[in-house]
């Protein structure tokens, strides 16, 4: 079985997102093929990964597409940011702000058009934006990621 | 049978002391099954031989309620209703209830409970391998207050010893087998000025050097290497720069493995083994990849310890650490999945040992604030919505039971936790969100709760202890948790 691969720390933060998966040259599947994965109009972050933590076919299909993911808003790393982290499970404290805290497995950085108004950690939300991949370090927060939603909006539900 | 006839029949019974087979319900399937159980129980004879081997398997946070959930989950996986499913340790002949409180805590933590099980004394919450005279976090109070662990005691008897966990090996329960610390949080570093003890990771390698731990398999690699050292998975450690306890272990002749393939290739000839399969805790069973299962680690440890211990036997502590973590996250789906993996490990330990010379003890260190809603019909998915009882049949109706707010609810709930329905932005008011069966059965579903907490809590409720093998019959009644140590010690020394 293939061992998981992790990305290296860069800056102060490192998002647990895949480092592998683009080598396959087979045709990229259409997003429409994954409608069964969509529940309540949204995908789940976990569906972006294969079991070996490489990107899934859904992630490939999402590239450049405006898509919606469901989860919870983690408490902000800093105030007044157009950025938050979406998680599969609610996190009452910012897991990226304390060195001894364990990070949740499934996270997706969300870059919004406007400053984020924090919602309670235990309220389920959806975030809609353009799915983008590729190594990126956020200069303002130091948050390093290989996948994210940009130009995003969010709402409860 | 009319009332008159029944009365006459019972009067006849009272005079003639009829056998159970003569009762009118004797043909009932439930009656027959219970008679079979009684017959098996009557055959039991206490085993008073010396226990060559002692294995204690601890499912962290798996109290009677949590265990009930895992029983139903496991049975439903096999296509049944679940209620009547029997987990491997539920066939063990001996059982007791266990009071888990710590000396200073009605609601216990795993450090205090682990110390009770592994040293024979109750102590304070948050400390390991020390008595209640220490002040948590104050290193100066450790002097003179350290107590012996069962691994140290069993080593003195000539036995091989091991610790296996799906949590970090430096986490409370596995560390209760080898560490002496005034604070469970000292996993990889000590506060400034603390010179009276070593950090927990260092204590594990010290124990391997001393021979009081021969096999150590689990998670927590980051606590053994420095910030400047990159592990096999490309992640940095947490220790001070330059510190590398894995390299130190290897210099001592310890085999080091970090994934499932490495463990499969490792020698089980008695050579000490350190397995660190994950940077922090090992993965939940539902996501596990590249790491051995708890049952596989248990099998490996038994094989290696049997080789090391020879005729003197071995002592092994096995912990399912992530049952507890899933409950802290109010995520019942992963709690029961790891609970099933624990049951598989128990079955493995049982299959690889002889009841005649091996005492197997199965328990939990504490329970969680888990609770179960009603009234649900048979076959209701234990992770799903509570379905109505069918008055005309056995299986539920398929219609969710509704609360006064008109909404359905899951069978499993937690009293507190991140699934609280109360919202900070509404002055901690709130209401229950709508919930579909599909959402309830999602692997990431967070059970609804009332009291908002970042992490769901333990509870002080009793846990069960199951046992088989030499002197297992001493585990009966309602016991203080530290009695478990004394039974294991007694079994190994008689």
UniProtKB/TrEMBL annotation, chain A:
Name of this protein: DUF3299 domain-containing protein
TrEMBL record, chain B:
N-terminal signal peptide: 1-20
Enzyme class: hydrolase
GO molecular function annotation: alkaline phosphatase activity; metal ion binding
Catalytic residues (positions): 110
Entry EC number(s): 3.1.3.1
Cofactor: binding details: Binds 2 Zn(2+) ions.
Keyword annotations from UniProtKB, A to Z: Hydrolase, Magnesium, Metal-binding, Phosphoprotein, Signal, Zinc
CDD domains documented for this protein: ALP (cd16012)
Family matches, as Pfam families: Alk_phosphatase (PF00245)
Superkingdom classification of source: Bacteria
SUPFAM superfamilies: Alkaline phosphatase-like
Cofactor(s) listed in the protein's UniProt record: Zn(2+); Mg(2+)
Binding site for Mg(2+): 60, 171, 173, 319
Annotated InterPro entries: Alkaline_phosphatase (IPR001952), Alkaline_phosphatase_core_sf (IPR017850)
Ligand binding (Zn(2+)): 60, 324, 328, 365-366, 458
Family according to the record: Belongs to the alkaline phosphatase family.
Name this polypeptide is given: Alkaline phosphatase 3
Phylogenetic classification of the source organism: Bacteria, Pseudomonadati, Pseudomonadota, Alphaproteobacteria, Rhodobacterales
Chain's gene name: phoB_1
């Amino acid at each position: 079985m293939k061992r998981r691969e992790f990305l290296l720390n860069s800056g102060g933060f490192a998002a647990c997102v895949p480092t592998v998966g683009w080598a396959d040259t087979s045709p990229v599947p259409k997003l429409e093929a994954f409608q069964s994965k969509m529940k309540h109009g949204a995908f789940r972050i976990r569906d972006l990964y294969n079991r070996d933590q490489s990107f899934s076919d859904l992630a490939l299909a999402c590239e450049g597409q405006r898509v919606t993911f469901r989860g919870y808003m983690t408490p902000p790393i800093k105030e007044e940011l157009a950025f938050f982290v979406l998680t599969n499970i609610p996190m009452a404290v910012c897991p990226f702000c304390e060195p001894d805290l364990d990070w949740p497995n499934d996270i997706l950085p969300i870059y919004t058009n406007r400053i984020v108004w924090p919602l309670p950690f235990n309220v389920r939300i959806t975030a809609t934006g353009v799915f983008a991949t590729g190594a990126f370090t956020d200069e303002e927060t130091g948050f390093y990621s290989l996948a994210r939603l940009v130009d995003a909006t969010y709402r409860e539900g | 049978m009319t009332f008159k006839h029944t009365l006459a029949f019972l009067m006849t019974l009272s005079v003639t002391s009829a056998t159970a087979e003569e009762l009118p319900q004797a043909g009932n399937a439930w009656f027959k099954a219970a008679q079979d159980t009684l017959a098996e129980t009557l055959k039991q004879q206490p085993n008073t031989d010396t226990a060559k081997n002692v294995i204690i398997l601890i499912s962290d946070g798996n109290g009677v309620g949590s265990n009930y959930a895992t029983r139903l989950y496991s049975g439903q996986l096999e296509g049944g209703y679940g209620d009547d499913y029997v987990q491997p340790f539920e066939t063990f002949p001996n059982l007791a209830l266990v009071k888990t409180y710590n000396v200073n805590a009605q609601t216990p933590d795993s450090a205090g409970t682990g110390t009770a099980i592994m040293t024979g004394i109750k102590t304070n919450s948050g400390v390991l391998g020390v008595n209640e005279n220490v002040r948590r976090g104050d290193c100066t109070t450790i002097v003179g207050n350290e107590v012996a662990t069962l691994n140290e005691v069993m080593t003195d008897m000539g036995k091989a010893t091991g610790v296996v966990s799906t949590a970090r090996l430096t986490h409370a329960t596995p560390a209760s087998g080898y560490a002496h610390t005034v604070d469970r949080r000292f996993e990889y570093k000590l506060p400034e000025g603390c010179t009276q003890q070593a950090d927990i990771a260092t204590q594990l390698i010290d124990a391997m050097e001393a021979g009081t731990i021969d096999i150590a398999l689990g998670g927590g690699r980051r606590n053994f290497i420095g910030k400047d050292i990159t592990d096999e998975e490309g992640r940095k450690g947490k220790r001070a720069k330059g510190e590398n306890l894995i390299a130190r272990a290897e210099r001592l002749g310890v085999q080091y493995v970090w994934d499932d393939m490495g463990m499969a290739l490792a020698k089980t000839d008695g050579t000490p083994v350190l397995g660190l399969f994950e940077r922090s805790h090992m993965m939940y069973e539902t996501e596990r990849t590249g790491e051995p299962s708890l049952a596989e680690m248990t099998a490996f440890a038994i094989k290696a310890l049997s080789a090391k211990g020879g005729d003197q036997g071995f002592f092994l502590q096995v912990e399912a650490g992530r049952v507890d973590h899933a409950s802290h996250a109010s995520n019942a789906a992963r709690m029961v999945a790891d609970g099933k993996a624990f049951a598989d490990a128990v079955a493995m330990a049982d299959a690889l040992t002889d009841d005649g010379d091996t005492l197997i003890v199965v328990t939990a260190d504490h329970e969680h604030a888990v609770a179960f809603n009603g009234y649900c019909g048979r076959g209701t998915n234990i992770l799903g919505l509570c379905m109505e009882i069918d008055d005309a049949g056995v299986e539920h109706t398929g219609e969710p039971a509704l609360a006064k707010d008109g909404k359905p609810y899951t069978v499993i709930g937690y009293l507190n936790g991140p699934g609280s329905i109360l919202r900070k932005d509404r002055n901690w008011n709130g209401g229950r969100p709508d919930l579909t069966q599909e959402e309830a059965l999602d692997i990431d579903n967070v059970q609804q709760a009332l009291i908002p907490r970042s992490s769901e809590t333990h509870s002080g409720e009793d846990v069960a202890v199951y046992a088989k093998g030499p002197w297992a019959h001493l585990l009966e009644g309602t016991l203080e948790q530290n009695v478990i140590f004394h039974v294991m010690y007694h079994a190994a020394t008689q």
